[in-house]
Request: fold
Amino acid sequence: MAISTVSRTDVRRAVSQANRKRRGRRFGRAGGYAGRSVLAVFFLFPIVFMLVSSLKPDDQIFADLSSPKAFLPIGHVSLDNYRKVFDTVPAWRFLANSIAISLVTVILGVAVNSLAAFAISRMRWRGRSIVLAAIIATLVVPFETFALPLVWWVNKLPWLVIQGGVPRWTFGWLDTYRVQIIPFVANAFSIYLYYSYFSTIPKELDEAARVDGAGWFRIYRSIVMPLAGPATATVAILTFLPAWNQFLWPLMVVQTENHRPVMVGLEYFFQLNVAWGPMMAYATLITIPVLALFLSFQRAFIGSIASSGVKG
Amino acid sequence: MTQQIAAAPLVRVEPELEPPASRRRHRAEKAEARAARTFVAPAAVLLTVFFFVPVVLCFALAFTNARLISPHGPQFVGLDNFTRLFSDPLFGRSLRNTVLFSAVVVPLQSGFALVLALLINAQIPGVNFFRTVYFLPVVTSIVVVSILWTFMYQKDGLVNHLLQAASFNAIQGADWLNNPSTAMPAIIFMSIWQAVGFHMVIWLAGLQTIPGDLYEAAELDGATTWKRFRFVTWPGLRATRTFILVTITIAALSLFAQIKVMTNGGPLDSTSTVVFQAVRAGYEQQQTAYASAISLVFFVLVLMVSLVQRYLTRDKD
Reply:
């Protein structure tokens, strides 16, 4: 008897405890969503504010600040700010420049870095380990440490131009597209990413292809590269983002409008009377392409950032 | 293309003329090495011209009087730039601001990023949405973000209006960027907002390498949430920790874009940083040599910090 009562209360206690735990978990889950949502608002509100403000005239932006209307596209909503952007700055030119610069940097970067990584990871030659060590060593030095000497240096670099059919050397790379592209093509981290990815592809494939008479470039192009899609996506994204976002470098090496990229174009709006509406419109305009890319290739974007953490 | 020709002897087997196996192999190895060097050449040349040479130049020019545009070549001036640098009050202030910024940003940002990573590592529906949203500022350029927050930080801007609304007019807010005592904290806050998602994703990658059965075992042993974090998660993140510390610190020490866009070093040099000063000297004042000296000090700073961090977070066993 006694034993059975004890066990019954035990069971009851256990059941109520489990219930409490489950209820606690349910509350915990609701709380979890609440906390996560507050954080989502925290990360989202400035971006929403930017998008919404780009559609309103300045006086309404300021009038709406003290109410939730600041985050809602209501009132005098129009594309006037965007029109003003194109009237005051050569925005199309800046956008075209940035698109061209980032695309060429990505294409050349993928080609040059994958080829180097291919040779380092899959071919036997003397000096291979020294080259790899030298490349790894460059990873710890931030661009800012040598950016200033680099300005001095690119101002002295030669370039071959053909004038009236006669090749002639010119000196100084300032105010060109190449000065915004070529220094960023070879990238130690991209080489490293390809290098680690290539080592996961079985070497037997190369050997089989060699037996069939394929040359090394053929193996690279037709066997290894097609299998390295994820690495290429990562390298493309990690090259594209900084190329699109370049600011410090073009600020120093580009003085004319013709070659100016989008980020430096923002400086145009820092005149005496800041027109915030058009400025928000321009900021939106140069953010949308990246945002659209990110939202359509989220997994690849986040995966590429995550893989940048593997090098530690 | 050359390597295809080089590879040809392997294929064209002509029994009478065929060289001994060892010689043939030797020739194939030579061809392989030649092809490999051709493949590495573009990257090697570019890295040499645009990385190794400028780094060496940074060291070399720091001891000269080089100017960005000058009819004369650089002349050796010994330690002049460094004596000038260390008696320059602006450099002292820039160095202090840079160190202060890093000292606040590194722990706050890495800690906050870890909290976010734990939140989005949970197995609950809709977690991908939160991950995307937390990551959005990272894909927004720091220049755009700086402009946006400059607008929001104005005296009658959004931040102050939100503070008033949240505190029922108890807090009036400040003219954040025009006040020497609030400018740097405002930039710190914004910088963390922008970059924390990046390190969240790296923490997340680290979290996902920890095997799930470790957590199951801990749960069976009755470990609390905190204990599971302390004895399973934290030790499992050792490599990630080092990486995050080093990358956040280097990024923080390189602070430039926010300063250039938001305050231009002001008010009263309260937000001038080492890189900002180097750019001002080297580009705006065209004093390449002086800028190189500043960069060199910056380089030593970065190197020291990452070595110390690597030492402190090394494998202790």
